[in-house]
Amino acid sequence: MNVINRTIGLSLVVCMLFMGAIGSVATSFADSAPKWYLNKEYDEGDFVKFRGKIFVAIKEHDSDQSNFPGNEVYWQTYKKGAGYKKDEIPTIKDVEKDKIKEADKENEKVIDKETYKLEPVLENENVYVYYNVKTVGTDGYTAEITVYNKSELEVTDWTLTFTYNDDEEIKDIKYYDIDQDDELVKITPEESKKSILPSKKISFKVNIEAAYNVPTADDKEIEEDKEVEELIKKIILDQIVDPDNYELNITTSNVETGAVLVKIDEPTFDKNIFIPEIKIGNVEKSIDWESESLYTDLIANKEYLIYAESYKIDGILYEPVLESNKIKVESDELEIITIAYKKTNIDEKTGRVLVYVFKPEFETDVFLPEITLESDYEDVSKDINWGEYVYFEDLIAEDIYDVLLEDIVVDDITYKAYSSLDTVKINEKKINYVMIKYLIQE
Question: What is the pLDDT of residues 323-376, one digit of tens each?
Fold first, then answer.
């Protein structure tokens, strides 16, 4: 992973300067607001002046270096014109109303660039299929279809079928043959698009023609709305029905394969605490206690790592026990692995990490950064808005966490991720700081 600068001194003062950049302009009563002080009791609803801005306490606490204004757990930035009375000190009720308004505003945003559905529309042992609406118009919309090969074998040919509404029609797609019979649609790739390598994907956009019930300019509601185009888009989105009845037929490369049978022993603790997750190659499965599962289509004579998750729950560590975390697959012999779990009481001392994501030089709606901190015992992922920071809390003290970032590719543009730190050792008494930045790769 590339690093912005390993020698950056991420002192508390520097971080406070970064955090001070987040927030709105102070209100008219800024000059009369009391300053924030260390080692002082603050009640819910108290307001203070800090770095030229006004903050409202949203949680009762004793102030220290870890909860200075800007810490969203304890403080809310006061925004001018955000629903507060002109000369009135903002209350918790005002703050909550402001949060609801902001959330409603986000929910009303119209899809016009990128959407990300976490759940595939089709999934089996070999592939994921995703379907995402990209842009909408009065005469139809554009969607992106992605086929991801999660198997160990190359997909050498494939066809995708699904059903649309009978009043929708797909236009021709470059490099793909479209066969539409009423509601049924069949997509067949040309020779250059048939191959999908292991752990790779292929994406293409489809243009769908359709007629929608759209209000005219004579409609009173439309006349009074200042953002007519956005309102129409929302109306159209409500009428779009995603395809259904997906089927994907694939042909894989002709190589010798083998299989591995994984068995999970009966635990010495409550079975309901968790269900083990085991990954071999690109295939991850949840396997119930005292059960077994077969991992097929593994390449023969290849050595695979066995990833068995550890779990930290309520101060207890549950770790997998197996003879070896590697296995060589044979084509003529079924390999069998047995996994048990042991539990250990661990030191409940914890620490936290503050992660800040710089505002980018590109449009912020292209994608939302996801940051993961991973140790040998757990991994924690969070989405972080641009120009904001988030605390990763309750991390195991003295443990080392890797900072995991992914480069993002959208419309053939690569957005490369940089971090001030590759790893973080958790300190019970000291906050660790990680600064993240994304740049367009030339």
Answer: 888 899 998 889 999 999 998 877 667 888 999 999 998 988 888 999 999 887
* Residues whose CB falls within 8 Å of the CB of residue 281, separated by 6 or more in sequence, listed in order: 151, 152, 295, 298, 304
Strand partners for 374:
379, 402
Is the pLDDT confidence value at 28 over 90? no
10 Å CB burial of residue 45 (0-12, 13-18, 19+) is middle
For residues 383 and 370, the answer to whether their CB atoms sit within 8 Å is yes
Q: What is the pLDDT of residue 32?
A: 57
CA atoms in the 13 A half-sphere facing the CB of 427? 9
pLDDT at site 7: 35
In the chain, ranges of CATH 2.60.40.290 domains: 122-252
| Residue bearing tokens 């109306």 | 235
Residue 322 burial (C-beta neighbours within 10 Å; 0-12, 13-18, 19+): middle
Cβ partners under 8 Å of residue 59, min gap 6? 44, 73, 74
User: How far is residue 307's CA from residue 376's CA, in Å, rounded to a whole number?
Assistant: 11
What average pLDDT score do residues 284-289 get? Answer: 92
For residue range 225-255, what is the model confidence (pLDDT) as tens digits?
A: 555 666 667 777 777 777 888 999 998 888 8
Fold annotation for 122-252: Immunoglobulin-like (2.60.40)
CATH topology of domain 350-440: Immunoglobulin-like (2.60.40)
Fold of 257-345: Immunoglobulin-like (2.60.40)
What class is the 12-107 domain? Answer: mainly beta
Q: What is the pLDDT of residues 198-232, one digit of tens each?
A: 888 899 988 888 766 665 555 545 444 555 666 66
Query: What is the rounded distance in angstroms from the CA atom of residue 70 to the CA atom of residue 220?
Result: 44
Q: Range(s) for CATH 2.60.40.10 in the chain?
A: 350-440
Closest listed residue to residue 350, CA positions, set 392, 396, 393, 316: 396
How close are the terminal C-alpha atoms of the chain, in Å?
17
